[in-house]
Amino acid sequence: MKLLIDSANIPQLLQHPLLKSACKSGPLRQKLHSIYFDTPDLELMRQRIALRLRQAGGHWIQTVKGSGNVEGGLHQRPEWEVPVTGGMPDFDKLSVSPWHSFFTPDIQNRLIPIFVTDFWRTIWLMELPNGLIELALDAGEIQAKNKQVPICEVELELKSGAPASLFDLARELRKSIALQPEDRSKADRGYKFYSGYSHAK
């Protein structure tokens, strides 16, 4: 589940009682740098496929995502990821992904970087009555065509338990913090920004 938060409200989130009572250890903070690839005519976007290389802690992960469902900020989308050795797609590993038939030699030869996301992610693992939930605060920016648009959002990921626990946690947080459900992924926002919608938020 993805929720937008204003940067001015981050201190309220950091001081929320649940982050102390439900977390057994302190938060983990890491810098994430991601490069999204597509063809110049955005063939992946049209097919609802995303190809991302993400660097975290000196390691690169290659991720392919397919189409999925989004409702009320709750995202359900299949994805496949493998470690790679650098900041360019590993075509051999693409060939064994669930979307291997799409990544033809023609598509592979035309892949270029489209946009970049750079943000700090702070993660809390919350043990709640109905589930184990990872709460992540992402703050940074999307970069495309030498321009930037901010990222400031909260993601709730169900690790185990009932899906309803995500909504329970979101409702509890929204009692004291202004949070808005967000149906757009970072990739969706990046593509819109890249395509010239400078009003993307």
Total helical segments: 7
Question: Strand arrangement, largest sheet?
Answer: 7-4-3-2-8-9-10-1-11
Q: Compute the number of strand runs.
A: 11
Shape verdict:
globular
* Share in β-strands: 35-45%
Helix proportion = 10-25%
Description:
The chain contains seven helices and eleven strands. The protein is of the alpha+beta class and 201 residues long. The strands form two sheets. The chain has a nine-stranded antiparallel sheet with strand order 7-4-3-2-8-9-10-1-11. It has a two-stranded antiparallel sheet with strand order 5-6.
How would you summarize the topology of this molecule?
Layout: E1 2-5, H1 10-14, H2 17-21, E2 28-38, H3 43-46, E3 50-56, E4 59-65, E5 69-71, E6 74-76, E7 79-84, H4 91-94, H5 105-110, E8 112-128, E9 131-144, E10 147-161, H6 164-174, E11 179-181, H7 186-194
Antiparallel strand pairs: 1-10, 1-11, 2-3, 2-8, 3-4, 4-7, 5-6, 8-9, 9-10
